[in-house]
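Q: Start with the shorter request: fold the first protein.
A: Done. Sequence, then structure:
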Amino acid sequence: MKATVLYYSHKGKTAFLAREIAMYLWSKGLDVSLCSISDFNAEKLSGSDFLISGCWTCGWFIIGQHPHKQWRKSSKELSEKIPHHRTLFFTTYRFRTGSMLYFMKKVMRIPTAASVPFLKSKNGLLTPEDKRTLDRLIAVPA
């Protein structure tokens, strides 16, 4: 199986988390492609079974959180290329993630009620619960 891990990072914390995710999936036997969303084109998604995509949390301290405009712009063309049950979103944050998942789903045209795994990290590291979430994602049948 193949997973594509895309990220948009501002100061490096999101890139670090993306690498952590990619290395964990690789350790589970997946063929993993890791790429900054600014260097990505939709053709690279061909053959991928899973899409893991994330960016840092923009917005005010405790309200108005949203994905960065560069992530939104690049992600629109990826919508509906991978089924939502094989998609995972992640974000890094300083204070709160607020509405990040809602807006990420909206950009990717995933119904609000659809269940999509979401990882959030303040320090860029995967927790044991994050690893269990990734394990559940890759166990989803086609």
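Q: Next, the second protein, separately.
A: Sequence, then structure:
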Amino acid sequence: MKRILIAAISGCVILFIWGAFSHLVLFIGAGFTPLPNEDTVIRTLQNTLPKQGLYFFPGKDFRRTTAGQESTFEKKFKTGPVGMVIYRPVGGNPLSLGKLGTQFTSNFITSLIISFIVSLLAASYWKRVFAVSLLAALACASVSTIYWNWYEFPTSFFLAQCIDQVVGCMLAGLAIAIIVPSAINRSNKNGR
């Protein structure tokens, strides 16, 4: 268990540093477009959106929609425009300690899961690193693809996220697979 914790801390630091590099240097702004007429749009949002939230348009209450409302929604959806707005009415620091703390915690949980899985694998070092990379690809296939497909996140954003996840987990996996011995090695030691 001690090795798993040490590996998780090591992987967490690697993921955190990689994430800073990938988001602030390598993929900075991937998929984002500056908002034209920003001041006008912001004033409109401030005057029309009641609170913080994720807004989808054309809008509908997905839990309670009548046949007539569904028909209207489909017509609006087909003719457009269609989009989402993630809105927070108050400002804040884009790199606040709270956001960095949440990211670090997320990286630690990810590394802890990876470390535990690596400890269960009876495979060579490189196969365990490859398995960790596949876990990241699984996350992209199961989550990021949904946002790209259904909500039409830009392809450049989607690809940057996938590369970020796979490379980050591969780098963490390189360290974790060194620190956490293979299940084969542990069983050989215990068998002696």
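Q: Describe the second briefly.
A: The first strand starts at residue 53 and ends at 57. DSSP finds seven helices and two strands in the chain.
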